[in-house]
Amino acid sequence: MSVLGVYGVEHVSSLIYYGLHAMQHRGQEGCGMVCVGEDGKMKRHRGAGLVTEVFNEQKIEALDGHLGMGHVLYTGAGARSLDNIQPFYFHHGTGDFALAHNGNVVNAELLTECLERRGSLFHTHSDAELLAHLIKKENPEEPRIFSIIYALNKMEGAFAFLIMTKNRLYACRDKYGFHPLSIGKLGDGYVVSSETCVFDTIGAEYIRDVAPGEVVTIDKKGIRSSFYSQETKCKMCAMEYIYFARPDSDIEGCNVHAYRKESGRRLFKEAPADADIVVGVPDSSLSAAQGYSEASGLPYEMGLIKNKYVGRTFIQPSQKLREKGVRMKLSPVRSIVNGKRVVLVDDSIVRGTTSQRIVEMLRCAGATEVHVRIASPTMTHPCFYGVDTSTLDELMLARMSVEEACKRIGADSLAFLSYDSTLHSAAGRTDMCLACFDGKYPTPIYKSIEEANK
Ligand code: SF4
Q1: pTM attached to this predicted model
Q2: Ligand 1 within 6 A of 237 CB?
Q3: Cα 383 to ligand 1 centre (Å)
Q4: Residue 271: pLDDT above 50?
């Protein structure tokens, strides 16, 4: 999922359209936009599908204004219905407002139960709707920033929220800083985005990140900062670097391509392979494959081609769709891999489906050996923070050893990047969330892993 807000510039709906398109890799099941028109009224359009399918010129023009926000959705934890397409838009006596979020609130069930007991009725399972209820439940007459701070203090987990009124935008990030949220300057206005690649797309200039625990208010007075919590940590999701973000995005000062390339270099040092060529799995593993190739001196070859018009397998919601997705998405280049010993570099192994299919494809295309190198540690735990890495039962490396997994995917050898290298590939980082690799969840998770696995 990702959020995008634009304040104080002309043609916000077009800018949001292009910005959402640049973040399409973070969710392909639905998207939406709410903008404030010159008459001060909010207008919304949302729908299932890709940004180019949901919006056309007419719809973009109809939404135009000077302030707006957008969202792309993948139905991860707690959001398996298209009712959950954001932004949400609420009417209220104190003023209409819109909300969108990225992440997952881990105590959402508990908070929902408390609110329902006090009369709230929920239309969706989304954390954005939960935040709306929390904001409005206590002291709705107070200045909104107090109700927002009150509401965020009740929430635990990973979240980046955008809240919009007819003349103001609030950008909020959880106190662990799980997922990125950055601020850019565009003319006299501002842009807030889940990824910095959006800034280049729409011509904005990066200013800074929203800090963990911070609520940034953007209005005609400019930018103001408040903190809903002083107990902040830096637990950026490692999977943002490894898989999720676009290579041209920077996350807390580290470029994603540079991170992946460094992880590839380290991967070679930790797990060299006697081979002829290095092949990366497009797209998120290409940078790591380049790093592996540079460090090893083995030529980097385009041994796999991606059909750009098929979605990412990892975020397809069912196993059947994922398997179909792999076959439609990737093709081996026979003239390159035939008769070669291949080092296949991939970003991660989740269920093992993709790796198995790719190894099989490369062998069918004539590869004599396939040595799989993974630019992250073994994934052994589910994520509770909004990244749909799957349940414990489905995670291949939670159920079997590296040797068994190697056999299962049909590779000649299999090796993973160490924890240390996963952290230190991001120059200057001293900490991040690696819970899906080591089970050390930075927050309470409010249920046992077995419960969560049901
Ligand atoms: S558990 Fe894994 S996927 Fe989830 S936030 Fe932590 S590092 Fe990211």
Answers
A1: 0.93
A2: yes
A3: 5
A4: yes
288 touches ligand 1 (CB under 6 Å): no
Are 164 and 69 in contact, with CB atoms under 8 Å apart? yes
Percent of the chain scoring above 90 in pLDDT? 81
pLDDT for 322 equals: 61
Please tell me the predicted confidence (pLDDT) of residue 329.
82
**What's the gap in Å between 178 CA and the centre of ligand 1?**
8
Question: Where are the chain's structural domains?
Answer: 2-233, 256-452
Evaluate if residue 315 carries a pLDDT over 80.
Answer: no
74 CB under 6 A from ligand 1? no
Q: What is the CATH number of domain 2-233?
A: 3.60.20.10
What's the number of CA atoms in the CB half-sphere (13 Å) around residue 287?
Answer: 19
- Atom nearest to 389 CA in ligand 1: 3
Nearest CA to ligand 1 atom 5: 237
pLDDT for position 280:
98
Given a cut of 70, is residue 278 above it in pLDDT?
yes
Beta partners for residue 34, in sequence order: 44, 69
Q: Say if CB 382 and CB 355 are below 8 A apart.
A: no
pLDDT of 74 over the 90 cut: no
Find out whether the beta carbon of 433 lies less than 6 Å from any atom of ligand 1.
yes
Q: Which residue has the higher pLDDT, 109 or 315?
A: 109
Q: What is the 433 CA–ligand 1 centroid distance (Å)?
A: 6
Query: Which ligand 1 atom lies nearest to the CA of residue 437?
Result: 2
Instruction: Give the pLDDT mean for 97-111.
Output: 95
**Number of alpha helices (DSSP H) and beta strands (DSSP E) in the chain:** 18, 21
Q: Which atom of ligand 1 is nearest to 179's Cα?
A: 5
Q: How many CB atoms lie within 10 A of CB 153?
A: 13
CATH class of 256-452: alpha beta
CB 243 less than 6 A from any atom of ligand 1: no
More confident residue, 328 or 240: 240
Q: What SS3 class is residue 444?
A: coil
Predicted confidence (pLDDT) per residue in 185-198, tens digit: 999 999 999 999 99
Residues shown for the chain: 454
Helix-strand-coil percent breakdown of the chain, rounded to 5? 35, 25, 40
Strand pairing partners for 101?
A: 161
